[in-house]
Amino acid sequence: MKHVSLVKLGGSTVRSPNLQQWIKAIEQATEPTVVVPGGGPFADGIRKMQARLGYDDATAHEMSVLAMEQFGCVLLNLSQRFVAAASIGEIHAALEKGDIPVWLPRKMVMSTSEIPQNWTVTSDSLAAWLQHQLGAARLCMVKQIDVPENSTVDALSRAAVVDDAFPSMVSHGSQLFVAGPADLATAARRFAVGDVPGQEIPVPPLKTHTVEAHAAE
Description:
Strands 2-1-5-6-7 form a 5-stranded mixed sheet. α1 (19-26) runs parallel beside α9 (184-192) and α2 (41-53) packs antiparallel against α3. 40% of the residues lie in helices and 14% in strands. The chain is of the alpha/beta class. The chain is built from 9 helices and 7 strands, in the order βαβααβαβααβααβαβ. The two termini are 26 Å apart.
């Protein structure tokens, strides 16, 4: 499914007045498109409560994945075109119908041993992991920040725009875009012509696909 695009809709957009505009823009997509929700405010309290209550990293990991699903439920409620998808089969079935699947990650993430159950990574790397599972050609990361021109994956990771594991997770040979507030004005048009918004970021050679874990934005 090389023509599929993934759009990671960062959980930080929950607090933005632009959330509905991003949803409407994504709804204009004419190419197969999958939405990956971030954790955002649904995940923000998990680390704080872990320190207070003392639950282990495995529990915090599952809670953070569920935080992604919470934002996913919000997106499903706010869109007429989005549909829930918890597996590769459900994603393919939705795409074949012309729908836009919103990935609910718990089923896939919690059933694989390759994802550490700790705070190693965030939903950014989980999006990159899903891109690898689907063989999707493009990954668009919607952030609440406009990244500088000539940015690199490593530089974005060092600046905490994406998580530490992301440079090793993003699929070599794919296209990576980071879209911020400045890209919203043209986003709907870009999706409508089969493109994605944002600045393209060069993807370095993939080292390994060992991985990831946490689900907060």
